[in-house]
Amino acid sequence: MTTLRMCSDDELVRQYREGCDGAFAELLHRYEADIHNYIFLTVSDSDLADDLFQEVFIKVMRTLQAGKYKAHGKFKSWLLRLTHNLMMDHFRSEKQSLYVTNYDANQQILDLTPADDLPAEFFDDQEALYHQISLCVEALPETQREVLKMRIYEEIPFKEIAERTEVSISTALGRMRYALINLRKMVRERNIAPV
């Protein structure tokens, strides 16, 4: 019996389409570091890199499940092109949103002012902000909260999160995506901070 580790990318794609979540987990394992590093080197923001990384692999899952990827023995090239296109879409939407978003004075303070020069109230405000956000995290559905904490706080790879929670990797990615969507929605609704 051939193990998934020995299969070609195209064979893994075929098996994933046939319902083998382990095949997708193997593809993710093969390219997770390359794709995440490529995104991070482009955006230089670890939170944004994590968000874009998730979007990439959710898009990969949907494309494969819909049968829109045509196997040519060039899965990695296709994956890098998809990643690049998704980042370009993000930058285009960011450029447009610059004209409609509010200026974040706290971000400017964080970027330009040495910590020793910040007023004591700034740290009190930040502590209150973190407390409010942690209340939002706790208000998430348990399955979403569990995945979010493992990925963000413990920095556990999605493959391991899937194993620990005994779900498929696509389910773990989906839970993380919905956790972030719900978290942003709560932060917006509670007027905690600009999102």
Structure report:
- The structure is a single chain.
- The protein is mainly alpha-helical and 195 residues long.
- It has 2 domains: 4-97, Rna Polymerase Sigma Factor, Chain: A (Orthogonal Bundle); 105-189, Arc Repressor Mutant, subunit A, CATH 1.10.10.10.
- Helices cover 74% and strands 0% of the residues.
- It has 9 helices and no strands.
- α1 packs across α2, α3 packs across α4 (75-97) and α8 (158-165) crosses α9 (169-189).
- It is globular and about 50 Å long.
- The relative contact order is 0.10.
- The model is unreliable at 96-118 (pLDDT under 50).
Shape summary: globular
Give the total of domains.
Answer: 2
- How does CATH name the architecture of the largest domain? Orthogonal Bundle
Kindly name the structural category. Answer: mainly alpha
Secondary-structure element pattern, one letter each = HHHHHHHHH
Number of helical elements: 9
> Overall pLDDT, averaged?
78
Beta-strand segment tally? 0
Which regions have little confidence, pLDDT < 50, spanning 5+ residues?
Answer: 96-118
N→C terminal distance: 49 Å
Could you tell me the radius of gyration in angstroms? 19 Å
The largest β sheet comes out as:
none
